[in-house]
Amino acid sequence: MKVFQFLSLSLFFLFAICQSCDLSKYTPLECYVRTGVFISNYSYHLWDLSSTDKGDLQTLFDWGVCPSTQSMRGNRYDGIVNYVDFGTLGKDVFELLTGQTPDIFTDELFSQGLNFQKRFYPQNDAHNRSGTNYWPMKHSEDYPMKIYISPAVQNSSYYSLKIDYDVYGNNAIEVAPLLDEIRQIPNTNLFVGKMYFRVLDEPIFILWFSLEKRN
What we know:
Blueprint: H1 2-19, H2 28-32, H3 54-63, H4 69-72, E1 76-84, H5 88-98, H6 107-113, E2 115-120, E3 131-135, E4 140-151, E5 159-164, E6 178-184, E7 190-199, E8 202-213
Antiparallel strand pairs: 1-2, 1-8, 2-3, 3-4, 4-5, 5-6, 6-7, 7-8
């Protein structure tokens, strides 16, 4: 039995070593996006981020760059939810966004619930709103927001683009406390983002998401 356990443990560590990525040869994008193989000059898209581990999402976020507000304006961004902290608060926010309870999701509903789109206006509207969101499960645009740049929530040594829902038209209790922040993966149209819910102005992490700019 002990011999079997030793062999199993050895094989596990051997597999881990073989699967490790040399960051001196590859970028974090090539290392942590689960395409299955390393491919030179590969053009990465949104689906490539769908199976990235949540810990590696943080590495990609740190490695990313802060996009300008002007670069976002007038564009649409397809999005996926990568990981949700399904604690009480996370579950409530997810139900708010999608209109569905994750406990009763079928495969089809879950797929729809994890997809969304952010739509940015060419310029802020009369209420200083920069854009809105579209969730397929709700079949409508909802939750307008404003954008600006400020130090990242969890690491003030670099900046991130904030997507702030504290704007005219949003429910003051449920929606206005929401805050997104995104950073762009270098040399791609991809972005890694986090959503928070502010309680007494303290951001509490809710979920990871990714975006891809539509051409």
